[in-house]
Design brief:
This protein is an alpha+beta fold and about 375 residues long. It has 14 helices and eight strands.
Length: about 375
Amino acid sequence: MGVPCRNLCLTSAVLLACVMAGCGPSISVRPSLPPSESDLALLKSTALCEQKSEFLNTHRSKSLSPIQWGSGQELMIPGAQSASRGEESYFFDENDVLVGALFTFPEGLNLDPYPVLRRTLSRLKPALEFYLNVSQLETAPNMEASTIFETGDEKSTTQYLVAGSHTDPILLQASFSIDPYVRLFSPYRREFLDRLRRPKSGKPGQNIESQGREDTEPFVSRQQFARGQAAQLAYCGEKNYDIAADAYQKAIASGFTSKAWLAEAHHKLGVSWAAKGQFDKAKTEILQSLDIRPNIPEVLNNLGTVHRDLGETDEAVGIFERAVTLRPNYAVARYNLAGMLEEANPKRAVAEYETFLALVEGVLEEEARAAHAEARVKALKR
């Protein structure tokens, strides 16, 4: 087992705030979670993070069709045998952990019998709206307006693909995933839309080339990055830095083409090595991240903590100073800088601690560090 990562690991709040389009790949954030109540029980026979062996034991009577899913596996239950009466797919990572599920209703599921879910959908803002031709949808044989709604809780996301009007919604797909995998379970992915456009017989639905999201990065790289995030941030049980390091290395080896993705994979691999106490390896990876994308404050902060743990005091101070210069309101970097300055420059350490305290006032996640900072200010002023 690795050693605790102390201040080096980014908090989940920081990671959540770092959206992919901005400061590199991370997890999408829902600042205020929308309602997620439903009376349509889809995951009632299993749960996210379940082991495949448990899943197979529960579904021994079903005809399960195994399908390769990148480095993992998809197990599909046909609609005729499923409890939901839809096509059910369950997705397991290479550690046999259930990370996502997809329910597909090619003929549409009328939501009239589900008032709770209808009320939930009516309160959600559309995440995406588009037109879709579903070949088997008996009630709407032509192009139909479709909407994707997103909801969820602190660690998982539910996405609904609904056709028709707000007053008469028809469910086409529902997906569930732990948050690191959310982009891989969007119903707007082309391979998922094709499951709706696939006919039982006759003419297929209209295939619009521009419709449906496809990966611009290698799928396995995206999948392994998500596996690393899930292990590093304890989405399924405790943090596991062995799995995280393995996943990030495989993500890098699979060949990211985006500099942002590649840099962040090296960064997160460095964080994993540091958590395992392998600080020289951590420094190598984080420096490689900064070579690809320089001047990222979070990455600099984590490099500073590695220098600190290696006993490289001057280097650590210099790196923390770069981080707070780039982002003056970066509270954690100021806290780390203050700690490094206590012996050499106690007056400035007090100033940095006091700045940190002003920045985190009222922030519950920083209560422990704030208490320590207040104690150090008192001690240094004596």
